[in-house]
Amino acid sequence: MLRVTPLLPLLLGLVASAARLPELRPSQEILEASAVRKDATVLILGGGVAGVTAARTLHEQGIDDFIIVEARGELGGRLMSHSFGAPDRKFTVELGANWVQGTQTGNGVENPIWALAKKHNVTTRPSNYLGSISTYDDSGAFDFLETFDASVKDFTRLVATAGLLTGGRVPKRLVDLTARGGYSLTGSRPESRHQMASEYYQFDWEFGTTPEDTSWLACSWAHNYTFDPASGGFSYENLLAIDQRGFKTLIQEEAREILKPNQLRLNSTVSAIERSRHGVKVTLTDGRVLRANYALCTFSLGVLQYNDVQFIPPLPAWKEEAIHSMSMGTYTKIFVQFPEKFWFDTEMALYADYERGRYPVWQSLDHPFLLPGSGILVVTVTGDFSKRIESLPDSYVQSEVMDVLEMMFPDVDVPEPTDFYFQRWHSDPLFRGSYSNWPAAFLSEHQGNLRANVDERLWFAGEATSRRYFGYLHGAYTEGAAIGLTLAECIRGRGCLGLEHIDRVQNARPYDVM
Ligand SMILES: Cc1cc2nc3c(=O)[nH]c(=O)nc-3n(C[C@H](O)[C@H](O)[C@H](O)COP(=O)(O)OP(=O)(O)OC[C@H]3O[C@@H](n4cnc5c(N)ncnc54)[C@H](O)[C@@H]3O)c2cc1C
Ligand SMILES: *[C@@H]1O[C@H](CO)[C@@H](O)[C@H](O)[C@H]1NC(C)=O
Ligand SMILES: *[C@@H]1O[C@H](CO)[C@@H](O)[C@H](O)[C@H]1NC(C)=O
Ligand SMILES: *[C@@H]1O[C@H](CO)[C@@H](O)[C@H](O)[C@H]1NC(C)=O
């Protein structure tokens, strides 16, 4: 995974630094720099899975002179739990990540999040979301499981054929297309609302975006590297966390093992990151300033896209282009609690509306294996529909959800909810979406540039920088570990060139604009 700096740039770098030698005489600039007190060697900006894992990696490498700077009052980031329900009937539910996606097959690669869940005794349950499902439309319960099963096969075919030129005798690599193009090319073209809802369940519900907005190649890789053991993935198993301490326990306990109080600044929102030859200066919204030799920025891709944090000097063009070449999906879980359960006994239900993506996926937490007696239903929406409901008042969204339930259960007198809640991920300036996704056409140079450090001082890690596991908890984990290790080597070597980047990303041939 780690791109080792090739020899040539390394040699060039040595030549370049030799050429700069005269400058290294104690100039005014250097005298000033050495006089400035540093608060730490490394500032880890953001205390989610990537930030905490990077901290643990530095610690394991013998570097403890770091500070984690986090805007919220606790660690975990998108591992975010919420106490939900009527005052006398509260349950801990997960607003963000909820599943360990892929565990382990035999002695194969283990999902590191699964390892952490076991280490910290986080309670999980196997999710059977393809096998335990009921189907509905505007007429109430309506069996379209055959259509649903066909959509499972269509998705498998989509994944299996990405990057292959169909029809030819010898499979060849294709340029990338959208996943919509891939579906169409492989003969899947949903028309009915039952087909659209079924496709939605396989695709949008996983990626948080539509097939139109997704790279065919990248979504196949992401799926394979997480789930398909034949491609190096963990397993097809999904485990739902129902631990009443919150899923975040696994990363908060990791942090507790290694952090001393002076290594953590909570309630500290970064407003600017300034870099120079000598180090970094990080300014917080309350005016406090922290100085260090290096900064590792783990803010979400959305935060970088929305300029919520100012970079001084501005990021170079190659970095800006990489940041905007990827997109953020939104995945919104709407929690509703009722006095009692009146719905399906399966774990999941799929509702087919005439509008694709309108309150389609329903999950029952009031299930014998999950939170029995909780009275909690979760309906998930994604993408543009998420953005739409984020701009509406809660009461409006609640009444739409109630209208859909009345259609799904025409014979039930649907009672008033006892609680209602959803997190607005897209409008939250600390996240700006749920997780990243590659639109077509995916170019590996953009991926490399998103991951690369800027100058020697500013480093990046997070789920979005992961080539294999973007979008997942294990992507944030493996990037925190890998970049943490590279940074440790850099610190021990008293400087380094870091990761390779491409200054100008080009197509194989320039476009001929007529
Ligand atoms: C709704 C939802 C469902 C998901 N479901 C799953 C799932 O089931 N399984 C799975 O594997 N993955 C899932 N994911 C993805 C997973 O949660 C993420 O990939 C992972 O948590 C990202 O970790 P990170 O450390 O890269 O980023 P983050 O968790 O975003 O960490 C970055 C931290 O930076 C902080 N920050 C941001 N801006 C500032 C600032 N200006 N100053 C200071 N601090 C700042 C944030 O508060 C945050 O704590 C889901 C995500 C969401 C939102
Ligand atoms: C962070 O802020 C919250 C809310 O204002 C407060 O309850 C909490 O004690 C603060 N934590 C720290 C470590 O300052
Ligand atoms: C793990 O959790 C379960 C249930 O939450 C509990 O019964 C058990 O005692 C815990 N084990 C340890 C080692 O903490
Ligand atoms: C994903 O895995 C399937 C099944 O193992 C394989 O046929 C396909 O080529 C893989 N896709 C990619 C893009 O590697």
UniProtKB/TrEMBL annotation:
The residues the entry assigns to the signal sequence are 1-18
Q: Which InterPro entries match?
A: Amino_oxidase, FAD/NAD-bd_sf, Flavin_monoamine_oxidase
Q: Which residues form the Amine oxidase domain?
A: 49-480
Listed A to Z, the keywords are:
Signal
Q: Which GO terms describe its molecular function?
A: oxidoreductase activity
**Domain of life from the UniProt record:** Eukaryota
The Gene Ontology biological process annotation of the record reads: polyamine catabolic process
What's the protein here called?
A: Amine oxidase
Organism, scientific name: Daedalea quercina L-15889
